[in-house]
Amino acid sequence: MAERQDPARAVGRRAAVNGATREERLRRRLTTEFAPLELTIEDESRLHAGHAGAAGGQSHFRVRIVAEAFRGIPPVARHRLVYAALADLLKSDIHALAIDARPPPGG
Questions:
Q1: Where are the alpha helices (DSSP H) in the chain?
Q2: Residues 43, 19: contact at Cβ < 8 Å?
Q3: Which residue, 13, 26, 55, 58, has fewest beta-carbon neighbours within 10 Å?
Q4: Higher model confidence: residue 91 or residue 39?
Q5: Does residue 76 sit in helix, strand or coil?
Q6: Where are the domains of the chain?
């Protein structure tokens, strides 16, 4: 008899590349590109269950990133910088991304 596979574990494997989940790859990329003072990544895929872009899980993320790299840059341009840093992941791994990118207070 074939072994029954836990669907949650299967999702985790599909989302992992070289042992890293999509969230881990997202975190690594943003950390490398922007050296953030604060970085919060929330997987919101569960809120989008049932539509094609959510198949497989770990595809909808909300990011809050605070980095000196954003100082003096308008909000839309900050978003463009984040999208550019994640371009390859957006083509293959990330279906939706909500971004709050800002410089640290003061300065």
A1: 7-15, 22-34, 75-85, 87-92
A2: no
A3: 13
A4: 39
A5: helix
A6: 20-102
Q: Look at the chain and count its residues.
A: 107
Euclidean distance between CA atoms 28 and 48, whole angstroms: 24
Q: In what order do the strands lie in the sheet with 96-102?
A: 38-43, 60-66, 96-102
Q: Which residue has the tokens 């640290």?
A: 104
Long-range contacts of 94-97 (CB under 8 A, 24+ apart): 94/22, 94/26, 94/59, 94/60, 94/61, 95/48, 95/53, 95/54, 95/59, 95/60, 96/44, 96/48, 96/53, 96/59, 96/60, 96/61, 97/60, 97/61, 97/62, 97/63
Mind listing the pLDDT tens digit for each residue in 9-49?
334 334 455 667 888 999 999 999 999 999 999 988 766 55
For the domain 20-102, what is the CATH superfamily, name and number? BolA-like (3.30.300.90)
60, 54 Cβ separation under 8 angstroms: yes
